Amino acid sequence: HNDSSGMDLYINYKGRLVLKWDLFDQLMREDPSTINGAEALMLGEMLTLPQNFGNIFLGETFSSYISVHNDSSQVVKDVLVKADLQTSSQRLNLSASNSAVAELQPECCIDDVIHHEVKEIGTHILVCAVSYTTQYGEKLYFRKFFKFQVLKPLDVKTKFYNAETDEVFLEAQIQNITTSPMFMEKVSLEPSMMYNVTELNTVAGGEDGESTFGKMSYLQPTDTRQYLYCLKPKPEYAEKAGVIKGVTVIGKLDIVWKTNLGERGRLQTSQLQRMAPGYGDIRLSLEMIPDTVNLEEPFDIICKITNCSERTMDLELEMCNTRSIHWCGVSGRQLGKLSPGAFLSLPLTLLSSVQGLQVGWRRLDEPPPPSGRFSPLTNVLRVHRFRASPG
Questions:
Q1: 206 CB-near residues (< 8 Å, 6+ apart)
Q2: Which residues is 302 bridged to in the sheet?
Q3: Considering only CA atoms, which of 71, 112, 78, 107 is closest in space to residue 93?
Q4: Total domains, the chain
Q5: What one-character-per-residue DSSP string does 10-55 give?
Q6: Cα–Cα distance, 120 to 29 (Å, whole number)
């Protein structure tokens, strides 16, 4: 910028990174998108970045080097450099210091490096403003603008699968929607206070922590990768039937990646929510069952009965035999009263009379309420399979 007094000031803007050639050459040779034997094709030995910044992706860190240089032969005073970042919703001050420099000699400069983690999509404008006083007491001011776009780097989709137990499986589909490969440094699930999480993205029986995606975890443009997690309610919540009900917060995904020049980006999703499956007034789950049983020999199972309703239940157990599964015990037995949110562990004995995979049925009824109006609860409970072998 050249003012009327003949004193020149300018802002020199440089984007992102300046790399030494040996480091850049190493990165290019390891980049899966380059051609073997021609990694440096059409590249000189100096990495030159354009004056126009271009695009940056959500979750990356915007870095800029700003230099104000006195190109004149005069001393200027009270030089104040201010850098603001204007987004669609706010204006942020990125300057490291808001105090003015008393004097700036000819051929000297004021330097500043700013950093900002980008958290919004859309147009961003870096506004660099300089105010100063000439040696004649004249106050001058000018601004420069640098516009760039913040784009979405990843498309994230989630699916929930409810197991027969209280476990919840989360599948996260992550797609690279940029034009360059990404190194997926970390994709993890931070569970809410109600759940414990187990990552299912390692090779069973492989090396310790070996990823199912291999050692070089690159995600090419437009490629999609599936990550799987198993969430299980913590014991203190699993025992309270009324807590994990309706819409519950599962947690949030934390995704960290690096692009071609080693720039790191990080995104965290909002809290993921799921609708808990409805179990009706009474839920019956299986706590223990053997994998294999002997033919025509009794075997034991343990069931858990939970009252999910808001009223006390008076329960009765009715046993219904099938052609292959027979119950050992008294049918029509009174189980007593079960208060809201309470559970009952019920040991039972069965006998299998047919070889192979068998299916057993169980029915639990609630007697008519005291009002005399018949309102039975006839839940057909879980189908269990038993493997029988010759005795």
A1: none
A2: 288, 347
A3: 112
A4: 3
A5: EEEEEES----HHHHHHHHHH-TTSPTT-TTTT--SS----SS--E
A6: 33
Can you read off the two tokens belonging to residue 139?
A: 């106050």
β-strand pairing of 247-258 with 333-338? unpaired
In a domain, 122, yes or no: yes
Within 8 A by CB and 6+ apart from 105, the residues are 70, 75
Of 135, 151, 167, the domain-final residue: 151
The C-alpha atoms of residue 94 and residue 107 are separated, in whole angstroms, by 25
Asked if residue 242 belongs to a domain, the reply is yes
Structure tokens at 5: 């007094």
Domain range enclosing 248:
154-275
Rounded Cα distance between 336 and 313, Å, is 8
Place of tokens 């009324």: 242
Tokens of 137: 């007491």
- Residues 92 and 181 occupy one common structural domain: no
Written as tens digits, the pLDDT of the chain (391 aa) is 445 443 444 444 333 333 344 555 666 667 666 666 665 554 544 444 444 555 789 999 888 888 888 888 888 899 998 999 999 889 999 887 788 888 888 888 888 888 899 999 999 998 988 899 988 888 988 888 888 889 999 999 999 988 767 788 999 999 999 988 999 999 999 999 989 999 988 887 667 767 788 777 789 999 999 999 999 988 877 666 554 666 788 899 999 999 877 788 999 999 998 877 766 777 777 778 887 888 888 888 888 888 877 888 888 888 777 777 888 888 888 888 888 878 888 888 888 877 766 554 444 444 444 332 323 323 333 334 444 444 3
